[in-house]
Each structure stands twice: as structure tokens, then as C-alpha cells.
């Protein structure tokens, strides 16, 4: 039986960058390149029609920017996971992207090793934020943690590092179901809507 591959779509307005990403990733096993787009409208249309597993998305797209593309994907409930690959380093862009459902945020200044690690993490169901950005995001006072148990803080930290519920369960020797219940309690206590916002919260608090 053929090994299942991760189907990729890239949305990037610079042809050279698109070709570079394709060349780098095509050398790695387990990935299939299904299409590319040079603007946001085309990216949205291709995501709807091709249903890729992962969309590599630049934020600075013409006609429809990357945040608007993610907003549309979120509204339609499409299952495609999004890895943002961008030059934007401002905290607002990172938080907005995660809140709109991005599963990863990678800077174009990162090296190939980080690109492949981010892609693998997102493709496998985890979350990734460039270490440079994670270190630089604003920290909020420690009292913002009040209301969470020690175990909930530990699990939030694991989520912020991109670990799945199964991986967290293995780490703490508890079931994935128990981890999901902890995550639901964390989200309820903090008023968060989704896993991406929990990732953003964990990063902001230095977890």
C-alpha cells in the first residue's frame, strides 16, 4: 500500500520564493505539491477546490491578504491547516494570524531546517511559532495565570510548544481524553475560543 503523503498548496506573490519553497520541500519524502497561487483570491479558490492538507500562506498577498484568506477559511470550516510564511514580525500580525486559525507562523528569515520542522509539526497536527517571535512577544503579569491549576499551566506550556493531546498525554502518562478535558477547562477559564488562541496565550505568558 502506498504511503500517504501530505498535500501542499503555496500562496506567495513572489515567483522566486514560490519556486524556492517547492524545490526545498520536493526533496523531502512524504509531501506532494498540488498547486500554487500568486494572490489571495486564487489561494482561496484553490484551497476550496483542491482541499490541501497544508496551505503555506504569505500574509502580504495582493487582491486578498493572508489574514482575509484565513478568515474565509475559518468561516467555511475548511480542514486545511495553515502555515504562515511571511516577513511580518510584528506581534499584532502573529496574534491575529493565530486567532484566525493559523497553525504555524514562520519568518522568511528562518533557515531550511526550521521550515521543514515547522511544516512537519503543522502537518502532524501541532502548532509552530518561530522561536525569535515567541521570545519577543509581550509578556503579561504572572497574576494573569490565576485560576489555572499547576497541571493546567503545564499542559498550556506543552500546547504552546506545539505538542498534540496525544503527545501531552504520553508525556504526563495520562489519557488523551484527560488532556482534552484539561484544555477545555483552560479555554473556559481564560475565555479562549480555539487551540490557536491557547497557543498565542501560552507564548504571550512565556510558557
From TrEMBL:
Residues 141-206 form the HTH luxR-type domain. InterPro entries: CheY-like_superfamily (IPR011006), NreC/VraR/RcsB-like_REC (IPR058245), Sig_transdc_resp-reg_C-effctor (IPR016032), Sig_transdc_resp-reg_receiver (IPR001789), Tscrpt_reg_LuxR_C (IPR000792), WalR-like (IPR039420). The keyword Phosphoprotein applies. Keywords: DNA-binding, Phosphoprotein, Transcription, Transcription regulation. It holds the Pfam family Response_reg. Residues 7-123 form the Response regulatory domain. PROSITE patterns: HTH_LUXR_1, HTH_LUXR_2, RESPONSE_REGULATORY. The keyword Transport does not apply. The modification 4-aspartylphosphate is found at residue 58. PANTHER family: NITRATE_NITRITE RESPONSE REGULATOR PROTEIN NARP (PTHR43214:SF41), TWO-COMPONENT RESPONSE REGULATOR (PTHR43214). This is Response regulator transcription factor. It comes from Roseateles paludis.
Amino acid at each position: 500500500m502506498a504511503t500517504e503523503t501530505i498535500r501542499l498548496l503555496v500562496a506567495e506573490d513572489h515567483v522566486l520564493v514560490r519556486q524556492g519553497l517547492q524545490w526545498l520541500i520536493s526533496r523531502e519524502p512524504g509531501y506532494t505539491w498540488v498547486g500554487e497561487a500568486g494572490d489571495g483570491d486564487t489561494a482561496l479558490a484553490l484551497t476550496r477546490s483542491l482541499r490541501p492538507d497544508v496551505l503555506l500562506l504569505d500574509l502580504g498577498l495582493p487582491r486578498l491578504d493572508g489574514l482575509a484568506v484565513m478568515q474565509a477559511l475559518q468561516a467555511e470550516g475548511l480542514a486545511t491547516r495553515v502555515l504562515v510564511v511571511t516577513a511580518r514580525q510584528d506581534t499584532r500580525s502573529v496574534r491575529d494570524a493565530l486567532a484566525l486559525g493559523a497553525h504555524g507562523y514562520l519568518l522568511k528569515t528562518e533557515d531550511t531546517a526550521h521550515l521543514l520542522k515547522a511544516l512537519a509539526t503543522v502537518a502532524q497536527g501541532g502548532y509552530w511559532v518561530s522561536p525569535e517571535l515567541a521570545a519577543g512577544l509581550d509578556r503579561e503579569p504572572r497574576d494573569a495565570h490565576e485560576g489555572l491549576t499547576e497541571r493546567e499551566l503545564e499542559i498550556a506550556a506543552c500546547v504552546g510548544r506545539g505538542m498534540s493531546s496525544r503527545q501531552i498525554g504520553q508525556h504526563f502518562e495520562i489519557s488523551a481524553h484527560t488532556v482534552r478535558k484539561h484544555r477545555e477547562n483552560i479555554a473556559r477559564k481564560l475565555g479562549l475560543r480555539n487551540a490557536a488562541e491557547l497557543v498565542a496565550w501560552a507564548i504571550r505568558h512565556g510558557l
